[in-house]
Amino acid sequence: MRSFRMAWLKQIRAWLLPVLAIALVLTAGCSVQSAKSTSDGASPSPVASSTSSQQPYANLPSLAGEATVEMIVKGSPITIKVDGTNAPVTAGNFVDLVNRGVYNGLVFHRVVREPQPFVVQGGDPQGSDPNVPASRLGTGGFIDPETSKERSIPLEIKPQGADAPVYSRTFEMARISSPPVLRHTRGAVAMARSQNPDSASAQFYFALADLGFLDGSYAVFGYVTNGMDVVDGIQQGDRIESARVTAGLENLRTPGS
Fold first, then answer.
1. Range of the domain at 40
2. How far apart are alpha carbons 239 and 107 in whole angstroms?
């Protein structure tokens, strides 16, 4: 009986951890949705079919191919390979923000390693203001100077075997059973968002472990190729000293260019 009870408890724990992890992601982003809805009144972007032959969201940056980003944290480099082939809008948004210097000096406001390794999250532009309390970090997005509004990007995930990504819908919403091309393996870099699929802006996270239960729900756009030991050492409150595009900037397409 004792061995049965222990096995049952282990099974319950194995089921609960992914559920709690997803709840952590959603909880951290709920205020993003609230702040966005009160600041710019934006509505979710129109749904684009995964078979669409036209480039959707031409008003947003995109990446045609790959790029490499070097991020310095605590004096050590983290190299990120950004995949614009499979996530053109998400990757383009990230590379554009890096190129603008948006991430320089921003804080990692959320680090979750217990009860098991989960994510390191940062990139809230409010983190550059020392007067913003720590409790507000995780609620901000990038304010585009050209529009004076928060730039939000659509959820963008490409299923394996598809010609193009699915936009504005999770795989569950779209009833897609195939796994995504870009998966939440350890070292994945993905966009944080609220429960609104199209609420990602500037905040991103590093996956500290394989997080397959997030596949199809959150948009991975790249992977750490060097410096994962640096990511493992990040503590809440650490800052991005600098971030720069070291290769592939010529692949960035911006509106009007």
1. 2-253
2. 4
The CATH number of the domain holding residue 27 is 2.40.100.10
Residues 108 and 100: their CA atoms lie apart, in Å, by 19
The residue with tokens 């603008």 is 100
State the DSSP code for 153.
Answer: B
Phi, psi (deg, nearest 5) at residue 76: -120, 145
Reported confidence tier of residue 138, pLDDT bands at 50, 70, 90: confident
Kindly report, residue by residue over 78-93, the tens digit of the pLDDT: 999 999 999 999 999 9
What is the number of domains present in the chain? 1
Q: Around 104, how many Cα atoms within 13 Å sit in the side-chain half-sphere?
A: 10
Both tokens of 64, joined, read 């045609």
Q: Cα(66)–Cα(49) distance, rounded to whole angstroms?
A: 23
pLDDT digits (tens, 9 = 90+) for 92-135: 999 999 999 999 999 999 999 999 999 999 999 998 877 777 77
SS3 152: coil
Bond before 115 cis per omega within 30 degrees:
yes
DSSP 162-224: -SS-EESS-HHHHT--SPBSS---TTEEEE---SSTT-BSS-EEEESS--GGGTTTS-EEEEE
Phi, psi (5° rounding) for residue 149? -125, 160
Single-letter amino acid, residue 17: L
User: In whole angstroms, what is the distance from residue 244 CA to residue 250 CA?
Assistant: 14
User: For the purposes of burial, counting CB atoms within 10 Å of the CB of 211, is it exposed (0-12), middle (13-18) or buried (19 or more)?
Assistant: buried
What is the Rg, in whole angstroms, of the alpha carbon atoms belonging to the chain? 18
Tokens 């532009």 map to which residue? 125
